[in-house]
Amino acid sequence: MKKKFSLRNANWEKITFWFVFSTLVASTIFSLINVILSPSGAVQHVKFQKLKTDYVLMLIQCIMGMIIMFLPSMLERRWKINVPGFMHIVFVIFLYAAIYLGEVRSFYYHIPHWDTVLHTFSGAMIGALGFSVVRLLNDSEKVDINLSPLFVAVFAFSFALAIGALWEVYEFSFDKLLGLNMQKFAYEDGTLRMGRDALSDTMKDLIVDALGALGTSIMGYISLKFKKGWLEKFEVTRYFPKENSQDTSPSELSDDPDRNNDAVLK
Fold it and tell me: Looking at the record, which segments are called Disordered (predicted)?
């Protein structure tokens, strides 16, 4: 007898992943076609027309997005870690909002503060990841080190700021090498920002990255200090296969401990 499909039992992690992936594949094809067909320079009497460089940026973002989507599963297999399903879903939705909605659908230009919201959210998300990084680096059977909640929170905050700064370096480098507009130093119609206005976008991104990371760090500090468990859904953990068992992929693990018959989470 076949089981009836229910929203509660649906594998939302896979559904979200393949929906976003197929969207990026279609956007990649769309971008590639327009890279070939679109003009290199502005056309007279045509307002806000996307140029070849705009579609090159779109193409690069879509390709990078598809590669990054497989990063969690690659890390799971390589480093024997388990990325929680909830965190994976949030990560994929963020890529959808940043790449498809932001670049392909031009939300960065048409939706006020779209970039600010995404940078704030990414700062908070990377800050949460910082807590897992501390745990994974400190996960040793040889030496037992008890780190204070304050130290872990400061590390998570610093980790998020470092990633945010590296992201701005990445955007600046691609803009310089390929003539793109990842840092949004120009408006949609190609008009260049001038003076302080040209600097404000990058500085605003770094500031909201810091604010998002600060919020997560404070919440994480309280969670560790008073054992609240607020960041458990974002906590990346190691897994250890049982003896005489075949290779177990972290993707086969469940958030429900009773269903993890092939591996033991630490």
Answer: 242-266
